Amino acid sequence: MASAVALSSFAFTRLSHLQMLEAESIHILREVASEFQKPVMLYSIGKDSSVMLRLAQKAFYPGPIPFPLLHVDTGYKFREMIEFRDNYTRELGVELLVWRNEPALAQGANPVALGTQRCCGLLKTQALLDGLREHGFDAAFGGARRDEERSRAKERIFSFRDRAGQWDPKNQRPELWNIFNGRIHPGEGIRIFPLSNWTELDIWHYIHLENIPIVPLYFAKERKMLVRGDSLIPVEQSFVKGLPGEEQWVRSRLRSLGCSPCTGAIRSDADTVPKIIAELVSFRSSERANRIIDHDQDGSMELKKREGYF
Amino acid sequence: MPPIQEIRQQDFSIEDFLESEQQKDLLRFSTAGSVDDGKSTLIGRLLYDSRNVYEDQVRAVTRTTGASAKTSIDFAQLTDGLRAEREQGITIDVAYRFFATAKRKFIIADTPGHEQYTRNMATGASTADLAIILIDARKGILAQSRRHASIASLLGIRHIVAAINKMDLVNFSEEVFERHRTALSVLAAKLDIEEMLAIPISALDGDNVVTRSERTPWYDGPTLLEHLETMPTTAEESDAAFRFPVQRVIRPHQNFRGFAGQIAGGSVYVGDKVVVLPSGKTSRVESIVTFDGELGSASAPQSVTLTLEDEIDVSRGDLIAAAYSAPQPTTRLEASLVWLHADPLDGAKTYLLKHTSQTVKATVSLRHRTDIETLEDHAADSLGMNEIGVAVVETSRPVLVDPYRDNHATGSFILIDPATNATVGAGMVRARLAAEIEQHSTSALIVLGSRQTLLQELEQRLLGQGYAVVNTRVTNRAVWESLLHAGVITLVACEDCESPSIAHLRRHEGLVFDSLDVHPQGEHGTAEEIERELHRRNIFPTTTEDAR
Ligand SMILES: Nc1nc2c(ncn2[C@@H]2O[C@H](COP(=O)(O)OP(=O)(O)OP(=O)(O)O)[C@@H](O)[C@H]2O)c(=O)[nH]1
Ligand SMILES: [Mg+2]
Question: Based on the domain organization, do B267 and B229 belong to the same domain?
Fold first, then answer.
């Protein structure tokens, strides 16, 4: 793999910025695997999860990854995401668990019927908490980064959650150096964010150097969209209905992956990773600007996190 | 998208861009200073003026005020990401922000000034190469400025910038600036801070943050960003001795047994002679394994997996070190402490001490406390929240530490309250003290609670290995002591295990342990794990010791 060589060839001089981040993340992954009884990696299929998964392969090489992956499936993820998930995890030979809030889905929960906040509460947060509890996981890795959003910028690498899975941002454990306190009482849990110090640019740069496979939705192509003002809404679910003339084929891509009704696409020509990086450097809005959920309310990410979202 | 067009017009080459990204080095810095001195405003201003915030993020903190419909940006709100922070206008917990210029990448920790949240300041400062201490030009040095400066100095931050802020409120007076600068250099000298640059700024208006101010013609030093971009980063001393705390044994099949960890100091080459501590067994590095292929050498802070030429017992918590310069295992050390919890330091209590990948029990007796006003040390026996001092720490089994000044990674530890699991203190090793532990002992006191089957299994196992074993219900300290001195393994089944007599023995013998030592997460150890623990502590049966 030519790209891997490029990353390692700096080894004897000064470590590059990405090599430092990689070493820090691997350290975190190994600490958790060694200190907890039953860790799990939350796998969201997005670019950050792809990087986290590669780092886990590296951390335990030549051994296998010593914990399963858990995908919290809302039922409204893009078809291409699910295909990618199944193929890629099979190829790597990792154990994949899927958890859905089936009772809520059976009752027809969707963002149009419930509004995005309640829908996320049931299909994401509740499903996540149930999944973790039912399997008895005491530690869960998440791919969140501090540069994503200002409440995330406040979070520890080891983020303590009480018995109800809640985050108390005013009372976080001190976390000095790279010594992590993962001690918990039964029923409590820790969320671990090995990518805390990576930026969006770092993630793409690493994907480029390491040749990490990602979901094709990140690359520009002609896609069927509802064009509403500045927004491009992907047409996948039957309850996402457009007004006459709104449905168009647009050369576009997704900057971050979520549920199809709630993730806006962007107009783009970027169909390779370098082109995505070039586009990223020119962006004037954050990657979350295209997410509908964060804007419901001031501080809505913080609220979701307090309730147990990761 | 117009920006893409712009890029094309400028002949933007992504290859060149990525290449230059790879060449940039990284500087981590944190803010410090008293409440409301303007730390968050400064970071917001720095991010904004260096074009490192997105438009939607700026829009979220822009307010339109008054009839004139003037818009103003609340810079502090760019980093004060919690609702409670925005409501109260103070920072509660550290915010990590990332930004880059053409020269460098930066990780910023914007920390709270409020005394109540000093623990969060310490969190942010612990990984910083540089600290910016803010001083409100109207107020000068306050108690909290001194506390933060002391903590920054204890944490070994070598580069300190004093930003004299709110110069707009003192008419950009050179005299005010000079007065604070002189007071600061006195403080720096007391704290052994080698270098402290003072810069007059206004975080609110942006003077001397990114752009040079026309309102300070008398100041000819660098702007804050110029200084951040050009100051030399403390490159890891490459001549530091090799240190490799083992995080995990990787054993996918019979033919591979590797030790995974992050290099905590120095570098290692294939063929190097190393010693495994605390056992003291030596071997040579057979290979340095990574997912991307084997390496001929590796250095701090890389995460790698080592294999050794000889089959020796190595497990999590052990240290692989350069054979020529290995730390002497010790159970007593002197350390600087920062106390982080509302419950004060209790000299009679047993804490858990976490150091690299090792967790041991520890008692802490304070020697003195530092008075923040005078920075003088006074004899004391306890530390309250946010106080700093020096203590003697005794551990239940040997720890493999270096002085913090030599190696931050192997010289630092945290203290955890085993009842609440709270992180209560942070320690920086000043020196190893003469160890009281006997090398190669044959005796130990193992407390097992009421688990009869484990007790019997363990007894059989240890007898089979040639240990002298006694199984007793007696909980009399004098009896235990004579058994220990007779060189036998004493297994005790007792319900109430944290009796004072055990605490006393634990302190003085270093040979006493229970299943918590084997399994720090509170799981019960198995007989096999307990036997391994004996080996880790250099406790072997007399007859077979040489055979090992
Ligand atoms: N006039 C003036 N006001 C300033 C300046 N810098 C900050 N302020 C104001 O001082 C107040 C406190 O600023 P913050 O940035 O929140 O202070 P802080 O140091 O981050 O406070 P804590 O994080 O709570 O310790 C705000 O009202 C700012 O607008 C300055 O240079 N000039
Ligand atoms: Mg602040």
Answer: no
Name the residue with higher pLDDT: B523 or B381: B381
**End-to-end C-alpha distance for chain B, whole angstroms:** 71
Contact A183 B127 (CB under 8 A): no
Q: How far is A151 from chain B (nearest CA, A)?
A: 5
Index of the ligand 1 atom closest to the CA of residue B201: 31
**Same domain assignment for residues B216 and B250:** no
B205 occurs within a structural domain? yes
Q: Structural domain of residue B376, as residue ranges?
A: 330-432
Bridge partners (DSSP) of residue A72 are: A99
* Separation of alpha carbons B462 and A304, rounded Å: 53
Chain A nearest CA to B541, separation (Å): 29
Per-residue HEC secondary structure of B221-259 comes to CCCHHHHHHHCCCCCCCCCCCCEEECCEEEEEECCEEEE
Average pLDDT over residues B540-546: 54
* pLDDT beyond 90 at B403: yes
CA distance A102 to chain B (A): 33
The ipTM is: 0.89
In a shared domain, residues B455 and B520: yes
Q: Are A78 and A217 in contact (CB under 8 A)?
A: yes
Residue A300 is predicted with a pLDDT of 72
B157 and B69 share one domain: yes
Residues of A in contact with B356 (CB under 8 A): 179
Structural domain contains residue B382: yes
Residue B8: per-residue pLDDT: 44
Same domain, B18 and B114: yes
| Number of compact structural domains in chain B | 4
Least confident segment among A50-59, A160-169, B309-318: A160-169
Last residue of a domain, one of B209, B235, B261: B235
Contact A196 B252 (CB under 8 A): no
By the 8 A CB rule, do B124 and B73 touch?
A: no
pLDDT at position A175, please?
Answer: 97
Question: pLDDT tens, A1-56?
Answer: 333 333 333 334 578 889 999 999 999 999 999 999 999 999 999 999 999 999 99
> Which CATH number goes with the domain that contains B501?
3.40.50
| Same-domain check for residues B122 and B13 | yes
Closest by alpha carbon to A86, among A98, A75, A74, A76?
A: A98
Q: What are the structural domains, with CATH classification, of chain A?
A: 16-203 (3.40.50.620), 215-300 (no CATH)
Instruction: Return the best residue to mutate from B31, B34, B39, B41 for the ligand 1 pocket (most ligand atoms within 8 A of CB).
Output: B41
Confidence at A298, pLDDT banded by 50, 70, 90 = low
The pair of three-digit structure tokens given for residue A230, joined into one six-digit string: 């500045």
What pLDDT score was predicted for residue B9?
A: 42
CATH code, domain with B415: 2.40.30.10
| pLDDT for the residue numbered B304 | 98
Cβ–Cβ below 8 Å for B93 and A154:
yes
Ligand 2 centroid to Cα of residue B389, in Å, is 27
Distance CA A255, CA A234 (A): 13
For residue B164, pLDDT over 50 is answered with yes
Same domain, B452 and B510: yes
Task: Confirm whether B463 is domain-assigned.
Answer: yes
Over residues B60-82, the pLDDT tens digits come to 888 766 666 667 888 898 888 88
> Taken in order B124, B402, B264, B159, is the CA torsion positive or negative?
positive
Last residue of a domain, one of B203, B235, B267: B235
The residue-averaged pLDDT of B403-408 equals 94
The verdict on residue B541 lying in a domain is no
The verdict on a CB contact (< 8 Å) between B292 and A60 is no
| Measured torsion, CA atoms of residues B517, B520, B521, B527, in degrees rounded to the nearest 10 | -40
Tens digit of pLDDT for each residue in A88-138?
Answer: 999 999 999 999 999 988 998 888 888 888 888 888 889 999 999 999 999
B314 and B373 together in one domain: no
Helix (H, G, I), strand (E, B) or coil at B288: strand
